[in-house]
């Protein structure tokens, strides 16, 4: 603005000079023009006083008017908006007119579409005391942002040295153009045997470039392999010494690390039970391997069918009960004869619970045959068998308060029906002992569940196989409808009494009578 004022001042001075020059050539005195060029400037001013006053007033008016009607000064702080950014689309501006009148401005944003790259018009309207000014600006919606490269699996990627590198996944997302993943270029740069970089580059259609590097490190995360010396799972008898045979350990990177193996746990050979020996080893990278050896200490009397146990004793045992039509009648006979027997029972429902309670109340031994008798189910695994015992043991405890630890394997410990799971009977006969159970087979078979046609056959099968020189464990059944045994029972008891046998129930201190294991 100052420039314009100076120009105006200059024009004023020129007018003044012209007037003075005119005066030189046309001097007036008392209205008569005298041709005399030597009029002093002082005289000149005196003569033209009015004219000068008018000129000065005009000049001042001009300056004031110009100042008042000055166009407001508007400045935009920027003219670019990043496309699709969340920026406010009102471009910041300031307006001066005498002073800051930014607040007096209204903006017509027009058709700015920040979603689309392009040039747009914005109209600004400024109101001053003396009128309204319009000003148009060009606003550019631009794309200057590079796409974003996203590395799945991270920039610092660790990979087992034994594995082949496969791309863990990479994406490129551009604010304007969306998914540009298919445009990504990748390049592998080897650094060393155990390190390399993957460089990813991508460009959007406005030539905005992005680059990202994935640093891949091959690591050793493979633990050593422990091999136990001797049998992995050992069975020893109570009192027998346990010798720690140790283990070997080999690591794919470090080689033989056997000397680093730590062995924890001990075996109390004076007490039956399952003991764990834990072997732990670490390789130089701290990868740990562990292995467990289970040592089973068992208390086992080798009685089998030999002449052992209490001589001349008959242990009457009844399997597969209780039943409502046979068991109570058997209990009646035993009561009348004053004889205690052993019941190897199966699961029972509420309607039969009173029979189990009666067996307990009348002093008989309630022993476990199993919750289920289904060979396929119970001999499927050690776990399945133990669950089958524990489930019934808990039920009996709930019904009678009696904790039973005497069992008979369905089919006997010599059974071959379990051969679908090779070796299971060998494992189970040891496991039950290690878990505090005692198991009983039989050495007198009434055959009442097999070929015995009537009660006479049952009677003969029993009495003909009794032996005075050993303990006699008699196998019978009290399942539903077994009248053969029911009808033979009293005669068998009478035979025993008349021939000098005594009758006892099996207890936890009874010598075990067991078969040879065939599986
Ligand atoms: Zn049975």
Name a few traits of the molecule:
binds zinc ion, 519 residues, Immunoglobulin-like, 31 strands, alpha/beta, four-stranded mixed beta sheet, six-stranded parallel beta sheet
| Poorly predicted spans | none
**The CATH homology group name of the largest domain:** Glycoside hydrolase/deacetylase
Beta fraction: 25-35%
The total of helices stands at: 10
Question: Which of globular, elongated, flat, extended, rod-shaped describes the shape?
Answer: rod-shaped
Category from helices, strands and their pairing: alpha/beta
Q: What are the distinct ligands in this entry?
A: zinc ion
CATH fold-level name of the largest domain: TIM Barrel
**Fraction of helical residues:** 25-40%
The profile of the biggest β sheet is: 6 strands, parallel
Estimate nothing, just give the exact number of structural domains: 5
CATH architecture of the largest domain: Alpha-Beta Barrel
How widely separated are the two ends? 115 Å
What is the β-strand count?
31
Task: Give an overview of the whole structure.
By secondary structure, this protein is α/β, with parallel strands linked by helices. The chain folds into 5 domains: 2-68, no CATH class; 73-142, Immunoglobulin-like; 148-219, Sandwich (Immunoglobulin-like), CATH 2.60.40.10; 225-298, Immunoglobulin-like; 313-503, TIM Barrel (Alpha-Beta Barrel), CATH 3.20.20. The protein is built from 10 helices and 31 strands. The strands form 9 sheets. Strands 24, 25, 26, 29, 30 and 31 form a 6-stranded parallel sheet that branches. The chain has a 4-stranded mixed sheet with strand order 4-9-8-7, with no helix packed on it. A 4-stranded mixed sheet has the order 11-16-15-14, with no helix packed on it. Strand 1 and strand 2 (32-34) form a beta hairpin. Helix 4 runs parallel beside helix 10. The longest helix is centred in the first third of the chain and has 24 residues, at 2-25. The radius of gyration is 56 Å and the shape is rod-shaped. 25% of the residues are buried. The mean pLDDT is 87. The structure holds zinc ion. Zinc ion is lined by residues 319-320, 369, 373, 410.
